[in-house]
Design a protein that fits this description.
There is one protein chain. The protein has helices spanning 3-12, 34-44, 72-83, 85-91, 94-108, 122-134, 155-164, 168-171, 173-178; strands at 13-17, 23-30, 50-57, 62-70, 109-111, 115-119, 140-144, 147-152. The protein has 182 residues and is α+β, with helices and mostly antiparallel strands. A hairpin with a 2-residue loop joins β7 (140-144) and β8 (147-152). α1 (3-12) runs parallel beside α5 (94-108), α3 (72-83) packs across α4 (85-91) and α4 packs parallel to α6 (122-134). The model has no long low-confidence stretch (mean pLDDT 91).
């Protein structure tokens, strides 16, 4: 599986085996994040036809976009990834790791004056932290309600991240002004 797609799915992907035996994998995003879904679609289309939907999320009163692929291969790869994301991160090289992080940040991260990756898996964030430290990036893991956050806030680490990650969130001009402002 493409590492960017793996990161994005791990952050915001869903999977379900339908009663008719079909295997579905999808991602829902706010309509304002349509540009993120364009990149993800380039990788998902390798698994089959992309089905796109637009709907109103009534719980949040927001316009949402969904991209969905019916694919047993993608379903099984994503299920293995969800079951053991640490193994995936352990076996990818540095370049693939940076793509994985970009996907995770685009789907389930935050960029303000710091960068934060969120996950329910502390073990995953600890493995990510190990790899980041090898790149001279100083992460800090903390608990945030029912999930964990891996935060990067020192200026040098943020500069390294902004040079090495291909995340769309880091490329937004307003966000770049904030990075490292502390």
């Amino acid at each position: 599986m493409n590492p960017y797609l793996a990161g994005f799915l791990l952050g915001d992907g869903c999977l379900h085996k339908l009663s008719n035996g079909a295997y579905a994998v999808w991602i829902d995003q706010s309509a304002k994040n349509a540009d993120l879904l364009k990149r993800v679609k380039t990788f998902m289309k390798a698994y089959g036809k992309i089905h796109e939907y637009e709907y109103i999320d009534r719980r949040h009163n927001a316009r949402k976009l969904r991209i969905l692929v019916y694919s047993k291969d993608l379903f099984e790869e994503f299920k293995r990834l969800k079951d053991d994301p640490v193994s995936f991160v352990e076996r990818i090289d540095e370049e693939e790791f940076l793509l994985f992080l970009s996907g995770l940040l685009d789907s389930d991260g935050t960029v303000t004056d710091r960068v934060v990756f969120y996950s329910s898996s502390k073990n995953l964030l600890e493995k990510i932290s190990e790899k980041l430290e090898k790149l001279m990036i100083k992460p800090h893991i903390y608990r945030f309600g029912g999930v964990f956050g891996l935060q990067i806030h020192d200026k040098t680490s943020l500069a390294i991240l902004s040079r090495t990650l291909s995340s769309s969130k880091l490329r937004a001009p307003a966000r770049l002004r904030n990075i490292g402002s502390r």
